[in-house]
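Hey, I was hoping to borrow your eyes for a little while. I'm sending you its amino acid sequence along with the backbone structure tokens. Take your time with it, there's no hurry, and the full record follows here.
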Amino acid sequence: MTRLLISEAAFRRVAAALEPLKNRIELAVVHPDGRIICNGETLDADAAQPDWGWMSADAAFGAGARNLFVAMLKSNRLSWVHTGAAGLDNPVWGQLVAKGALLTTSHGQAISIAEFVLGEVLGHFQRLYERRAEQAAHRWTRLPFREVAGSTWLIVGFGAIGQGVAERARGFGAEIVGVRRAGGEHPLASRMARLDEVRALLPEADVVVLSAPLNEATRNLADAAFFAAMKPGSVLVNVGRGGLVDEAALLAALDAGIPEFAILDVFETEPLPAESRFWSHPKVALNPHASAFGSGQARRNDALFLENLRRRLAGEPLLYEADPRDLGK
């Protein structure tokens, strides 16, 4: 019987959907304290030996996460892993693939992250925090604001997250320029470009969104030259990985006035050190790598895993197989 390794939190959510499969799948449930329970027996990570593993987004922390990873890495039978992670730069994903496991990913975060991006950009354009400050001071101040309509958004990384941002920004009347490896065309963008064309596109972009995977081609993509090419008054948004940005160069650029503002969900070092200038910089809106924490994320990711599980049992191709170029080394 095929053994599926699953976190206790994910199991509780999808137990009813898995019940009809009990004669085909044996569950090894990893609890938050690290215990792995299979058929009422407690197993250590060496003995778990899963055939398939599901690293749901809510299983990625603590002792349970460690044992889930260790059990997969030590399995001699592992053939498929489904992850709830949006990025695959952690070396463990490459190690699992090197063992011969097929790796599939989740895109349930895309809606949450896209809404976060739109909310933060609108908040800055609309001067929302200044309005609330004027309200608190009982001042009748009419603040002019920027409109998204007619602005140009350069979205670097045009996968599920980038497309989610594009769809919503287009709804406000923005022009979209998308960037991805293949370039080509896309119905959500007025123009598509390749990564090596980004520098030339920066002078026209009012909003630059980084939603690309972190790999050898994108590490420190946003460096001093990148910021020097940005448009006065532009906004930088990073919801990809901290390593996409040269953080020292960004701080210097913000001090110099271009970009005008930065919305940062991710950082090179996480949690962000208490002494980091980003905490108190007046031109930074900081979020603790939580843009994916929308109310519908778990439901969407669970549904995708269950669909891939159905496909795996039926011998059908799986959705969203990981691109080897995005795997951490």
